[in-house]
Amino acid sequence: MVMTALAALAWHQLAPVEQQQGREKRPQAVHVVQPEVQTVRDRIEAVGTLRSRVEVVVTSEVTGRIVAIDFTTGQQVEKGQLLVQLDDRQAQADLAVAEARLADAQRQLRRAQQLRNSNSISQAQVDELRTTVNVAEAERQAARVRAANHRIVAPFAGVVGLREFSPGAYIESGDPLTTLDASGEMELTFAVAERFVGQLQSGQPVNSVTSSWPGEVFQGELAELDTRIDPLSRTLKVRALIDNSEGRLRPGQFMSVRLTLRQREALVVPEQAVLLQGDERYLFVATGDNTAERRSVQLGSREPGKVEILSGINTEDRVVITAQDRLSSGDALQILEGTDNAIPASELIRQES
User: Fold this and answer.
1) Which string of DSSP letters, residue by residue, matches 28-79?
2) Which of 12, 33, 233, 267 has its C-alpha lying 20 to 30 A from 54's C-alpha?
3) How many CB atoms sit inside 10 A of residue 40's CB?
4) Residue 221: which of 181, 263, 259, 262 has the closest Cα?
5) Taking a C-beta distance cutoff of 8 angstroms, is the pair 206, 259 a contact?
6) Phi and psi (nearest 5°) for 314?
């Protein structure tokens, strides 16, 4: 009688545990796919700021009053074209004085040379007059430069910006008058992650876009690579030349750039299969007896939809793509048929910011 009572008590205590264990071992319904080998392309996406290939702030080398401004904002000018004329009356007068002194010195030298032929003066006197002529020529050249500096011309062909002064204004040497930018070709500087440095070379095609011209793609090519990698960001600064023959881009403009690198065959899975825990990327595969096995993986190229797997799985594995966030290694799985509603489609292209 006592044994019967003990057996009944043990049955009542163990039954809930067995029922709970039965619920824990219930298979988890999941969808699985096998990894595919696809053609992938490494593509760098970055942002940068435009600047003119050649640019300058136009200033005056002399002090003076503006008498004429011969340009309008946004005007295309040629090299040597007059932009600003300063009052040069004093400079022209100084030039006239220098030319008169030179002419007088040359006349005295010619007379001295004639007298020297008849031994009327010494050679030292002739040499002294020749030195005077040389000094007068240098003074005339300096006067010409000072006079020319009152004409401020375009140092190269380009587009002028806003004018900072009006006619009649008195300016000091070095005051900015306007800007001048060569607009036919623009420079776009951006940074590339260190791991891509070995794939970079001058001449690679570059496409860039800007919110100022939605839907427009501006083409160019990679032109220059920096010689040093930034030790903090682990990036290399590069520079691309962007075609601006239509003159729509402006210096200082913000642009997004896309640079396509190498193409190769790689193993890919749906991006939704990959989970993140700290620094670890992992996924689950279904083993031969339909149990879950956790695998750490190394990722490569990715975009919403699919991701390249560099290591951790092979083409024979069955990768879990649904309900994997509720799995642990060793869990029993119920493999569901069909994946049409489980996988979002997307092109696989590498993107780096």
Assistant:
1) EEE-EE--EEEEEEEEEEEEEEEEESSEEEEE-SS-EEEEEE---TT-EE-T
2) 233
3) 24
4) 259
5) yes
6) -135, 180
Long-range contacts of 278-287 (CB under 8 A, 24+ apart): 282/312, 283/312, 283/313, 283/319, 283/320, 283/324, 284/319, 284/320, 284/324, 284/327, 284/329, 285/32, 285/313, 285/317, 285/318, 285/319, 285/320, 286/30, 286/32, 286/318, 286/319, 286/320, 286/333, 286/335
Please determine, for residue 187, whether its predicted confidence score (pLDDT) is greater than 70. yes
Element (H, E) at 295: strand 292-296
Q: How far apart are CA 233 and CA 236, in angstroms?
A: 9
Question: Dihedral through CA 254, CA 260, CA 265, CA 266, nearest 10?
Answer: -20
- Chain segment 226-274, per-residue pLDDT in tens: 999 999 999 999 999 999 888 889 898 999 998 888 778 889 999 999 9
Calculate the alpha carbon distances from 167 to 59, 76, 148, 159 in Å.
15, 21, 19, 20
Residue-level pLDDT at 350:
41
pLDDT digits (tens, 9 = 90+) for 38-63: 888 778 889 999 999 889 999 999 99
Tens of pLDDT, residues 265-278: 889 999 999 999 98
Picking from 258, 257, 271, the residue whose alpha carbon sits closest to that of residue 348 is 271
| DSSP-assigned letter for residue 164 | -
β-partners of residue 307 are 269, 302
Q: Which residues of 163-182 are buried (b: 16+ CB within 10 A; e: fewer)?
A: bebeeeeebeeeeebbbbbb
Among 70-74, 193-197, 205-209, 342-346, the minimum mean pLDDT is found in 342-346
Determine the Cα–Cα distance for residues 270 and 307; give it in Å rounded to an integer.
6
